[in-house]
Amino acid sequence: MFNFFSLLNMSTGVVENVLKLVCSHGSKKYNVTLKCPEDSTELNCGHLFSAVENVTGVPENRQRLIFKGKSLTDAAQNLSEMGMKEGAIIMLMTKAIPCKDGETLTKEEEVLLTIDSEVEAKGRYLQEFTQNVMDFCQQAEDQKAREKMKIKVKAVEEEFMKLLEKLDGTVLEATDYRTKRKELVMKVQGLLQRCDCLTEMLNICPATV
């Protein structure tokens, strides 16, 4: 179920349940308010698409909405199934004008979505790997094993550096996409800092000779 806010409609005297979200489109932020239909207690992606169009002016057929790294494509899917709650942030990217054979993505969007997916996947891997390093340090392994673990951390760092190089080499004309690239760069830099912390952790954790 959603965390609804209840508002009194002054014109009808009826209490309405609403869900307030934030839509991020490039450097702009839009407040999106969804009203639950009278005949339902659930909101779906179709309601969200319509509300975003009303607020941003971007037609539904040119919207690509992303929530927690996943693209929203099924208009019938309930928002509650995706864990969308009050104050959730939705990213809006625009598609190219539909062609005869169907809708297509802009080149910029396709590149950024691909890199975004890579960052998300490698971020999840780093989270799991961090736990492995913490467990390793608690076991006081020998020096040789610790050096092998540090090599693994270095390999993860190199993967993130490759992503930064890919982002740096991506030519983007639209301001929206340059803003998204900047966000991805900052995210990867944050993950690299976590790698530095893991290396430091391995340097100071006890090890047998």
From TrEMBL:
<dbReference type="Pfam" id="PF00240">
    <property type="entry name" value="ubiquitin"/>
</dbReference>
<dbReference type="GO" id="GO:0005829">
    <property type="term" value="C:cytosol"/>
</dbReference>
<dbReference type="InterPro" id="IPR000626">
    <property type="entry name" value="Ubiquitin-like_dom"/>
</dbReference>
<dbReference type="GO" id="GO:0051087">
    <property type="term" value="F:protein-folding chaperone binding"/>
</dbReference>
<dbReference type="InterPro" id="IPR039773">
    <property type="entry name" value="BAG_chaperone_regulator"/>
</dbReference>
<dbReference type="GO" id="GO:0016020">
    <property type="term" value="C:membrane"/>
</dbReference>
<keyword id="KW-0143">Chaperone</keyword>
<protein>
    <recommendedName>
        <fullName>BAG family molecular chaperone regulator 1</fullName>
    </recommendedName>
</protein>
<feature type="domain" description="Ubiquitin-like">
    <location>
        <begin position="52"/>
        <end position="95"/>
    </location>
</feature>
<dbReference type="InterPro" id="IPR036533">
    <property type="entry name" value="BAG_dom_sf"/>
</dbReference>
<dbReference type="Pfam" id="PF02179">
    <property type="entry name" value="BAG"/>
</dbReference>
<dbReference type="GO" id="GO:0000774">
    <property type="term" value="F:adenyl-nucleotide exchange factor activity"/>
</dbReference>
<dbReference type="InterPro" id="IPR003103">
    <property type="entry name" value="BAG_domain"/>
</dbReference>
<dbReference type="InterPro" id="IPR029071">
    <property type="entry name" value="Ubiquitin-like_domsf"/>
</dbReference>
<dbReference type="GO" id="GO:0005634">
    <property type="term" value="C:nucleus"/>
</dbReference>
<dbReference type="GO" id="GO:0050821">
    <property type="term" value="P:protein stabilization"/>
</dbReference>
<feature type="domain" description="BAG">
    <location>
        <begin position="125"/>
        <end position="199"/>
    </location>
</feature>
